[in-house]
């Protein structure tokens, strides 16, 4: 089922949760709504589900306007962050619930309901646990029961609210892969909400990056990572260094350097912010295009060596990440001045920022206040 | 859930036997007093319980049986006593189910919906707890009494409320109203609306959602509330005393009957009827303890207040 979101606005009191959102989702797609908390991603999901009603705008399932359809008539499979499994029912009864509550005319006979529920339990790889109660299952198992329960009503769209949020890292990774396989098998249009950029990039066909009730960018995982449309998207999708720069024609001068990086794809002119990921900085020889930095400290974390450095001209603190066995690591010594090359970077018109230190790492699960403060 | 607690209280395997004094007995030095302080405190608490709770309870039964079992049975099967017992049971049988419906509806409305005047409604539910029962009884006299607002009109139509069973039932409903709602509101608040939303998303109607999801989720809390409500409905004295008029064999409930017998110096009859109320209390306590032991986790939300 393809879904169209048209100019959705939603306020909670005076807080604008969604400020005019448009989105087209194709049938069979697996879409991630990615953003920090308070970005409106969950609200958008709940509006599509029919758990919230928008102040303005349209939700279309195919050509059908969902405006006045309550959730029970939309046939959406909704998986809650904390699963909301019915505690007093067994796994089988939970999965069968959606079929059993149908009106007499539409309800299949009990034997078929049980058969269907068993098939779904098998699909989510929980065969043999039909008679367990939710409290007797692990978090990952509960999550899969919730999925089977949502799939039982043959939903037109599957909506998942932070599906892995309550699980530990290892289970999360396994479930992620498994959910991808399940989606490929069932082909149900699926939208999931996450604040974890890694999860979104790994799992989704397309990622919708949201911030402050608006969509910043919609694109394939490659597009949003390689060609971020806004500084926010760049910042949110990974670790980020921001350096002052200047664009003259097709040349970028980073951090007050006199040697320019020549590029084809720059349209802005004048003072800019140059965004570059720590892993896209490499040591180069002193005359090549780039900028100078003094290495402050080094720290090895597993296969990666992280360096704290300071840009010589602007005094900007920056971070460099190099694979442990990379030949650059020999050149990186505390106190040493090096010329750094930018493998890949994005340029945005200069923003007025206070402080001016490097942006903090975008840590998965980082609370919004932390991110907000870091970005001010 | 109890199994989980059991395992956490066991000694880890492989500990030498002299470690601690077996499960549950290990002391945490930081929060433990010296022995004599501990024993004094425990003794004081025990003596207090014994003197103020246990002895009176025993006294009730001893006094009731002072003249033997025959006199005891005569006292509780005597027509006026029997009528009081019947009226008490009738009152509870009407007041408890009504409050069950009111309490569940009020808790449902307050916890699952947002509306104007919600906090006012919550305050209103607490009103019977904050008003003296005597005042509650008086209110009904003022409304339904012979010189009250609605009394004369009702009397003309042959309906007697004050100094009759309907008045007693009304006063009892008023006094016991908060028990079930108060028990359910925190419980349902803690559970939130996610279960209901899940049921609705799966295609259930509002009615199906209530019967199949909400009600099973609150059943033990509800039973607990019903138990407390019932105990109070049968034991209520003040409000009922004002509105009943103390007509023997007609408008006397058990607590009122006990008082009348006592005032007439029929001590052993008074204690006989009182012993029935005491038995009811013991039964309620037993059930309450069982519920807390068996379903403590689900009830804990409402016991925080």
Overview of the molecule:
With about 375 residues, chain A is α+β, with helices and mostly antiparallel strands. Chain A has two domains: about 5-225, P-loop containing nucleotide triphosphate hydrolases (Rossmann fold, 3-Layer(aba) Sandwich); about 240-375, OB fold (Dihydrolipoamide Acetyltransferase, E2P). Chain A has helices spanning about 40-50, 70-75, 90-100, 110-125, 140-150, 170-185, 195-205, 220-225, 230-235, 330, 370-375, and strands at about 5-10, 15-25, 30-35, 55-60, 65, 75-80, 155-160, 190-195, 205-210, 215-220, 240-250, 250-255, 260, 270-275, 280-285, 290-300, 305-310, 315-325, 335-340, 345-350. In chain A, a hairpin with a 6-residue loop joins strand 12 and strand 13 (about 260). In chain A, helix 3 crosses helix 4 (about 110-125), helix 3 packs parallel to helix 5 (about 140-150) and helix 4 packs across helix 5. The two termini of chain B are about 25 Å apart. By secondary structure, chain B is mostly helical. Residues about 1-10 and about 15-25 of chain B have low confidence and may be disordered. Chain B contains 13 helices and no strands. The relative contact order of chain B is 0.12. At the A-B interface, helix 2 and strand 6 of A face helix 9 and helix 10 of B.
